[in-house]
């Protein structure tokens, strides 16, 4: 069996202090780092390390390269932002393993968790995910828009707080407005919405508005949006108010 290994690692939401010691240790031992170019750029170059940066829409190709290198005896870390198991590279690697040669199933593959955006954003704001919640990716690159709409409606009906990933991009300028309109039509217009941009970095901004006044232009691809449940509330105080959802049922 190859002496190589593959770690699928989460780099957290942005701040170096939020990269876990386990991930730091894996990066220190790695011969190769593979990932979407902005995430690979977060790993400092050093002698003995080869960085493989690629485009955002080649996840299976990226996973295949990582597995082939590990099979050849390399120590490989595939990096994602946040947590690699949340809308990120862990699922792509296992999909590649399932479709690939049988030898890949014998490789040493580990998933190293990270702090994902919804948890970092919630912590900065208070505790908006304190009761039942769900996460929905608004990108329609890998699933149809009709499925996204159905999941949003069901989440609103179930009164979940909803973390919205990939809310808006240059290619999808109207996606978030469409989601907000759907939720308002479902009767959720009074819910509170958190816009948390670039959390844990020097560009961090937090903004809370009622869903009735939320607009897509308030977010970009660096923004994590949390739509509260009907129970989510603000605590007014000097400075930034706290946003939280009580743990008690309605």
Describe this structure in words.
This protein has 250 residues and is α/β, with parallel strands linked by helices. The protein is 28% helix and 25% strand. The chain has helices at residues 21-29, 37-40, 59-71, 89-99, 117-125, 145-157, 175-185, and strands at 5-10, 32-36, 50-54, 75-80, 108-112, 126-127, 133-137, 161-165, 192-197, 205-210, 223-227, 233-235, 242-244. The strands form three sheets. It has a five-stranded parallel β-sheet with strand order 3-2-4-1-5, with helices on both faces. Helix 6 links the parallel strand 7 (133-137) and strand 8 (161-165). Helix 3 packs across helix 4.
Structural key phrases:
alpha/beta, five-stranded mixed β-sheet, 13 strands, 28% helix
| Structural class determined from secondary elements | alpha/beta
The best one-word shape is elongated
Mean pLDDT: 94
- Biggest beta sheet attributes: 5 strands, parallel
Q: Give the low-confidence spans.
A: none
* Largest sheet, spatial ordering of strands: 3-2-4-1-5
Oligomer: single chain
Q: What distance separates the N and C termini?
A: 55 Å
Kindly provide the radius of gyration, computed on alpha-carbon positions and rounded to a whole number of angstroms: 20 Å
Q: What is the number of helical segments per DSSP (H or I, 4+ residues)?
A: 7
Strand content: 15-25%
Give the helices and strands as they follow along the chain.
Answer: EHEHEHEHEHEEHEHEEEEE
Helix content: 25-40%
Record field, number of beta strands = 13
